[in-house]
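Hi R.,

Here's the input for the N-carbamoyl-L-aspartate complex you asked about:
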Amino acid sequence: MNHFTHHISQQPAVRDHRFAGHHILSVSQFDRDALAYVFTVAEEYRQAGREISVQRPLLGYILANLFYEPSTRTSSSFLAAMERLGGSVIPINEVRYSSVSKGESLPDTIRTLEAYADVIVLRHYEKGSAALAAQYARKPVINAGDGAGEHPTQALLDLFTILQERGQIDGLTITMLGDLKYGRTVHSLAQLAALFDVKINYVAPETLRMPGELIPQIRVPQSEHTDLEAVLAETDVLYVTRIQKERFTDEAAYASVKDSYVITPETLSRAKADMVLMHPFPRVGEISIEVDTDPRAAYFRQIEYGMYVRMALLAMVLGQA
Ligand code: NCD
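And here is the predicted structure with N-carbamoyl-L-aspartate in place:
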């Protein structure tokens, strides 16, 4: 076990191609050693800057970017990641224009795309869809969000961001705020962060609490609240999420919780001076734009770190890192 606690490039992970040919479906596939590997490669790419685009380690490889749900950030993040490494992309967005709307099954779509591409990134509205796709795929499938299930690449980039901003993860108190019931990013992040010595606070409206079946699987101290003030002062990382409107069946139920929490400069005046404020985006009012100039607002840096993490994952599953 590699105790990866301090600076990212301190202990370069041994290159053993352990991810070559593998799917990335869940954060449960990662231990600290595997994280160290991902973060080491991501940090190398970050430092290499344009140099890596000149080297083009993924020249000749093709990614099929298959998105059944709307996405700007995640789809363009994978697209930029692939192209910065010299690879190319088949972009398939909002699949209603493709055969899926004619009733083509996911396995058939996957088997078709893998005839053209070397790796498939899949976002789908159904929990378990990435695992289903992987059963049929001979090429690596990367889960880019399966309904209210998981979003492992987001959790990896979230932890990479915390490491970049704070230098280490052990010892931190992480507070997750917002829609913890439907928010797949928090489901994945809580499980992945639990590989470290952290404390996790959950702050949510009563109806949007962290799923009860997840909490016992996360073996670190956890506590649940409805009021941010109860935990704000002790928080090292505040991870804010959007209420997941598309997962509600009842418009009135959404309206009753949609403005539950809003982070303003006034909120930050009661937070630690070195707190890290994160959000997977898109935000729809949970963080006011006046907060953006506060040095603690890390969400735009988080987006850039995400691209390096996705570069690392693509290169790794293709056996090139
Ligand atoms: C998140 C998602 O799709 O789950 N966004 C993202 O990947 N950047 C969060 C969200 O949609 O609220």
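One thing worth noting: The chain has two domains: 27-150+306-317, 152-303.

Cheers,
M.
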